[in-house]
Structures are given as structure tokens and as C-alpha cells.
Amino acid sequence: MSRTILFNKPFGVLPQFTDRGTEGSARPTLSDHIDLPGVYPAGRLDRDSEGLMVLTSDGRLQARISHPKFKLPKRYWAQVEGTPDEAALKALREGVTLKDGPTRPAKLQRIEEPAGLWPRNPPIRVRQSVPDCWIALEITEGRNRQVRRMCAHVGHPCLRLIRAAIGPWELGDLSPGAWRDAPQVRLTR
């Protein structure tokens, strides 16, 4: 029987079970938090990003979640430097052209800091002279560091990035470093 879990990846944790970095490095990995044989990440989340990862023992489900052809939506909360004006928000909504090509349009809106948000360790850098704000974005791609690159492209680099949902699965009140069994869902399309 297959198993699928939801994990709240803390900042600084590699999104894999082993560290293939330099010899002697001791970077934290998924194995520091999850001791379940046979489950593997369905997609990635950068080491300096936080939030929801789905891990599963079902290879077909893993492919369905991570392959861009299925366009499974991924929702993020991004704390960005500055306050994006309507032109910047419109550019993100319509899609921007990055070095690796144009992005699909993003759904997005400005939001208040998400309720119940845990403190990041280490904290983000704060500049007294530059405000920051939160935006919620939903994309249907998953290119390398895509949300960070999109925000930087419109002049508002990410200070903190948290994945809040993947398709039907939501982070909810899952604490950083914790996991739980995922509710069974049927993905369509």
C-alpha cells in the first residue's frame, strides 16, 4: 500500500535524504526529520525556502505532482523587499520573461503576514529604510528558483519564501520540521 505524507521543510534543510555536497559537510536533510522507508519527495523546494513538501511511495503520484505537463498549482507566500506597485503585480500576473524563457501567468495578491507564521531561524535581514510586504502567488510551473527569480525580475527580491500548498494539499498548522499523513485525494486532469 502506498503512503503519502506532508512535510513542513524548515529553512536550511536540503530537500533530499542525503547530502551530496562536499565531503565532511553536515547540512541538514530530510533524513534529519523523516524516518520512513520508501517515501520520496515529489518535487523540490530550495534549501533557503520553507514550507510544504509532499513525499510519497507512489511513483505515479510522484510524477503527477512534480512533472510540469500536469500544471499542478503551487501556492507560495513571499515576503518581498519593497512594496510592489500595480505595474509589478500586473507583470507577474501576465508572466515575465526570465533567462530561461517566459513564465506562465501567476495568480497573485498582496496579503497581510500569514496568521500563525513561525519565526524563521535565522531571521531575515531587515533594512530600516526599505519596507517589505507579503504577496501570495500561485504558479503552475516549477522551474529552478522560479518565484524568487520572478519577484527579483520586477524589482522586489524575496526575503522569505514559504510554499503554502501543492494542488489539494495545504500546509495548514503543520509546524516546521513536522510531518503528517496526507489525506487521500484524487488528482484530475
Give a written overview of the molecule:
This is Pseudouridine synthase. It is an enzyme of class 5 (isomerase). Its EC number is 5.4.99.-. The protein is of the alpha+beta class and 189 residues long. It has two domains: 80 residues, Pseudouridine synthase I, catalytic domain, N-terminal subdomain (Alpha-Beta Plaits); 94 residues, 2-Layer Sandwich (Alpha-Beta Plaits). Helix content is 13%, strand content 29%. The protein is built from three helices and eleven strands; from the N terminus they run βββαβαββββαβββ. Strands 1, 2, 3, 4, 7, 8, 9, 10 and 11 form a nine-stranded mixed beta sheet that branches. A two-stranded antiparallel sheet has the order 5-6. It is globular, with a radius of gyration of 17 Å.
CATH fold-level label of the largest domain: Alpha-Beta Plaits
Radius of gyration: 17 Å
- Tell me the domain tally: 2
> Helical proportion?
10-25%
CATH architecture of the largest domain: 2-Layer Sandwich
Distance between the termini: 23 Å
Tally of DSSP β-strands: 11
User: What is the CATH domain class of the largest domain?
Assistant: Alpha Beta
Structural class: alpha+beta
